[in-house]
Amino acid sequence: MSNLKGSTKKTNKMRIQAVPMTIDEKYVNNIWYFLRNAIQDIQRKNNRDLRFEELYRNAYTMVLHKQGEKLYTGLREIITEHLLDKVVGNVLNSLNTNFLQTLNLAWDDHQTAMVMIRDILMYMDQVYVQQNNMENLCQQHPHPPAHPPPICL
Question: What is the pLDDT of residues 97-150, one digit of tens each?
């Protein structure tokens, strides 16, 4: 047997380097179109056939591969477009009939949709949005009542 007392051990430190991850632009666009269509379905209350785990994984993939800006700006565009093209028209058309009821329904629908969208884009909200000091998808009231709904953009 060899004598371990007098032997000197040479330790080699193994360095692990991050491998740069690249993602094909066509693949990113396919993911984005998939997510965009799903978000629009949610806004139209047509979300019965959506698979939320798959949507979350796709959003996660985009953020992981440094595509958070595309996801965030695209989401803001979709929300703005929906509110201007669909919601505002309905509310304005109800000015002389059932304005408050229509406005309240539009707000409730928007809040419900935004909670679902926030769940899909949770990773983007927690990572990309916070790292870049951007506005979160949904904020809680600073002084909430008993069970407040979140305030969503």
Answer: 999 999 999 999 999 999 999 999 999 999 999 999 988 877 644 444 444 455
Residue 59's SS3 state is: helix
H helix or E strand, kind and range, residue 136: none
For residue 74 the two structure tokens come to: 């695209």
pLDDT at 145: 46
Would you state the structure tokens that stand for residue 7, as one six-digit string? 């032997």
Phi and psi of 125, rounded to 5°? Answer: -65, -40
Interacting residues of 50 by C-beta distance below 8 A, sequence separation 6+? 38, 41, 42
Indicate the DSSP class of residue 47.
-
Q: What is the pTM of this model?
A: 0.75
Measured CA to CA in angstroms, residue 3 lies from 6, 7, 10, 135 at distances of 7, 7, 16, 65
CA-CA distance, 7 to 81, in Å (whole number)? 73
Query: In the 8-state DSSP scheme, what is residue 120?
Result: H
Which CATH entry fits the domain spanning 25-141: 3.40.47.10, 3.40.390.10, 1.20.1310.10, 3.30.1120.10? 1.20.1310.10
